Amino acid sequence: MAVLDIVLEGDPRLRQKAVKIRQVDESIRKLAEDMYETIPAVEGVAVAAPQVGISRRLIVIRYTEIDEEDEADEGIDVTYRLANPEVVRGYGNQVGLEGCLSIPGWVGEVSRHESVTVKAIDMQNKAVRVKATGYLARVLQHEIDHLDGILFTDRVEDKETLKFVGTDDDDREL
């Protein structure tokens, strides 16, 4: 398994529609595992294949959900490896801050569905449906956008909310 390099804004691969996966084979499973290993190495929660320079409709999500009000809560690991994910239903609306590994140091307020149903293919080539609310719904929508060449900054309606919160190591240009 390998930690992959993240493609940064300005790279044309981020703006292309990713290629549909015909069948999850060993090469797709390996890519998913490499993406899985990449997430903590880059301090992220999810990554889409175009963000590692691969034009495939594949997303990987990996984070620990913790109840902030329960000091004893060790958290629940949230992990998904989804090929050809597609939002088939969305309900409600939520506005929240988003950032992106491909746009280091920048955050902005984005409106998303509060709840979504996503259909996809898992790593065993089985059709799956994921019902998500809140943070997971936001992450799914953000990553699926990457598969269509859409960055979170495209969805920021009030540009005043777009702010640089990074370090001097991050590029301040947007």
Overview of the structural elements:
With 174 residues, the chain is an alpha+beta fold. The protein contains 3 helices and 8 strands. It has a single domain, classed as Alpha-Beta Complex (Peptide Deformylase). The strands form 2 sheets. Strands 1-2-3-6-7 form a 5-stranded antiparallel β-sheet. Strand 6 and strand 7 form a beta hairpin. The chain is globular and about 45 Å long. 32% of the residues are buried.
Q: In which order are the strands of the major sheet placed?
A: 1-2-3-6-7
**Structural class of the secondary structure composition?**
alpha+beta
Radius of gyration using CA atoms only? 16 Å
**Which CATH class applies here?**
Alpha Beta
Write the CATH fold name: Peptide Deformylase
Helix share of residues? 10-25%
